């Protein structure tokens, strides 16, 4: 009976360790980010973590990599695939930063991306952020987007996760307003 108790205790401990490992697995912003357009704050202006500002009339197209720092593969699943999509992983780690296109050229076709990606340990996958504001219009203010709601699947356990961006993406005003703001900020730094 004593030997049976030890086996049960070992199984329970293993199950608990597996659940803890699966439920604490995280991904993080990777080493690369780029934006297609939008205004950026010059270095002389405190940014409060603003990554880029887009006018209401502009297409928001931003790219950042997502890094898996865990020792096992992690599946990242977009909960809003219209706004957040992933490029397929390259076979070779040296191609992790070879993207299907540059953000300045616009968003990739849906056939070039997916709503999910399996990221191997210590690798990065490209996540495209395209018009996260959806149909919302911010003509009298700014919509702020600091991360993407996703699901993570690791070791057979799936859970919700908030994936932070490299900084805040701001959408609002009008294209003319964002362009005027960009010029005004640049001029202020020159004086």
Give keywords.
2 helices, four-stranded antiparallel beta sheet, 20% helix, five-stranded mixed beta sheet, 191 residues
Q: Can you give a write-up of this model?
A:
The chain has helices spanning 2-24, 175-190, and strands spanning 27-35, 50-55, 61-68, 74-78, 84-86, 116-119, 123-130, 142-154, 157-172. With 191 residues, it is an alpha+beta fold. The protein has a five-stranded mixed β-sheet. Strands 1-3-7-5 form a four-stranded antiparallel β-sheet, with no helix packed on it. 30% of the residues are buried. The mean pLDDT is 81.
Secondary structure topology:
Layout: H1 2-24, E1 27-35, E2 50-55, E3 61-68, E4 74-78, E5 84-86, E6 116-119, E7 123-130, E8 142-154, E9 157-172, H2 175-190
Parallel strand pairs: 2-9
Antiparallel strand pairs: 1-3, 3-7, 4-6, 4-8, 5-7, 8-9
Arithmetic mean of pLDDT: 81
- The outline comes out as elongated
Radius of gyration: 21 Å
Q: Which structural category fits the helices and strands?
A: alpha+beta
- What is the ordering of alpha helices and beta strands? HEEEEEEEEEH
First-residue to last-residue Cα separation: 83 Å
